[in-house]
Amino acid sequence: MTDWSRASLTETAGAIAAGTTTARDVTEACLDRIARLGDTLNCFVDVDRDGARAAADAADKRQRGGAPFGPLHGVPLAHKDMYYRAGRVSACGSKLRADWRAPYTATALGRLDRAGAIDLGRLVMVEFAMGPHGYNQNYPQCRNPWNPQYIPCGSSSGSGVAVGGRMVHASLGSDTGGSIRCPAAVSGVVGLVPTNGRVSRRGAMPMSHSFDVVGPLARTARDCARLLGVIAGHDPADASSLDLAVPDYEAELASAAPLPTIGIARGYFDVGVDADVRKALDRAVDDLRRIGFVVEDVAMPGDLLDEIAELHPLIMKAEGAANHLSTMREREADYTFEVGHRLHAGFFIPAASYIRALKLRGAYLRTFAQSVLSKADLILTPVLPTPVPTIAETSGRTGKAYLDMVVALTRNTKVINFLGLPAVSVPCGFTSNGLPTAFQLFGRPLQEAELLRAADRYQQATDWHTREPGLVADAARPVTV
Amino acid sequence: MIKSDLVRAMNESYAKLQLDAARVEELPIELEQLRRAIEASNPKVDFDIDPFDFRAALLDVAAGSKND
Questions:
Q1: Any catalytic annotation for residue A155?
Q2: What is the structure's pLDDT at A275?
Q3: Interchain proximity A307–B34, CB inside 8 Å
């Protein structure tokens, strides 16, 4: 008997649509895995078992009655606890919002609902999405599904763990400096960051309005294509959303157009890359060439990227401080020590500096496109330059040591947010500690279809995305952390 | 150069946060990094550019192609 919790989203949706299985059976399989692994990995804030079962039964009933159904019909998902659902708590990882009930439903969640997805509950995230490691002192430690002693990365920590741990088929995360791509990379799943403005942010907790992007984590590029097709598109209620037609991303995977050219980033992104990570990337490049991609080195403008890497936190912290000014004044004790401290700097950034940094963004994007995206359609980089660190290695840092850790984890991802470009994180092997590693592909704005086509071709020729954490394969065995 | 006295003064006049002494000593390091970043970029800021130029740039670059 097939355990559909371990299949991809598109395979599972296909099986439900074909009547091979039911929404209820798939939901039960996911709930069963959550029951087995949830207390070890601590990725859920709340599991809505009754609501999910009722929604699955309703979906099956509609199908039996011959009613039309959507592309995610009956598929169990769960999302970072910052996507608002009318009347439901959305704690955003914080004590401050532990009982806060959203007055409306996020546009992206509403679109998933209309496509037929089942919502299993709320996933753990870093407090107010501020931090790349995946810690949140307000909850039990969220842990990496490949080895619970290692970090899950963040801030969409629960999303990466739940998808990698086969508890749900996909999840919405959000990405301001790497918060989709890093958790996806360390959990061995695919993370897609759409172009800035491609997906509505209405009803998604704001962290930094210049950089925040809504996107999916799933097991395959094809899954991400289906999800993006559902959530992308103009939203009149979100002034930042682009009013442009949405391609059929899934159909584009089979496009007969020439394959995009891929540039291997030389400079900036390859600084400090660990030997294990480099080996996996070299093998991925060989595989891409074998598949038929033209892959060539492309020199990166190192000075420009260094500047962008330093300007990113200036904008992010100023905007974060603006969001949190009132609560930081009145209830700072309710912030975790780490996030409260992280917010402080933003209050001391002069408005003129913030605005000048914003003024540079467009010019730097044009310069970067001219010097890099004119050389290749897509650019390949490591997501994390080093193997995944352990929880012990990254805990308890303060001051400069903490900032250095943040910089190390986000170096290769945050510059993409500054430039507003689409990017995808794709698993491409394991380092000697047994944890996954991944490459990042990025391209021109609105080039998601090409990114997903390249990632899908790679996944058709390799099997990294099909490998499962030992905990999943042996979930019946009691787990000791 | 940002010193802890400046952080204290700015906090009292504007932010009004309950900063502990250790954080008052730590913050200038972080703020100095950010100050250096914007100082380094200052010469490149165009007087006539609107901060919202980014959206126009995004669409321009999207419309471009390889070998532009």
A1: yes
A2: 98
A3: no
